[in-house]
Amino acid sequence: MSRALAFRSEALSALTNEIGVYALCDLDGQPIYVGQSVDGIRNRVRRHLTSARSDVIANRQIDVWEIAFVWAWPVANTQDVQPLEDAIFNHFDAEQRLMNGKSLAPSLLTPDWPERQEVQVIEEADRQLRLDPAQRLPRQIQQYNLLVDYILNVKDADHLKLSLDAHFRRLVKYHETFL
Fold it and tell me: What pLDDT band is residue 59 in, cutting at 50, 70 and 90?
């Protein structure tokens, strides 16, 4: 196992495996995907980060290379998961469009957010190297192209086009940073 994979595995072992809501955050600590798990947050996040049974990875919505942090909000009851996901998703999607490619209806309930657990899943030195615009811009261009190809050749769906829009906005930001 490579050093990077060993670090990620060790970091994930510290992540809660309770049910709840999680955010996959980029190199800047900005959430790019919000999801829920009623089977355990750690197990679900591990599947995302290893591409095992993760649609958002398989259909090119997320580049795992960009994921540096995981935030988790565990809850005690399954009925609390969906209202919390709605609130967290809408909050962060309003700040910067998420890669989920969906829109959740605003919840009539505004649940109190439980205390957030934060886990860094790549080493800090590696994160700093990846922040270099000369590395980040080409990765974002590649990811954008992969998602366009997926839409054109595999599945033309509205949620993927919303994700493509989120990628484009990030691409513009990285382009400006590069210049």
Answer: confident
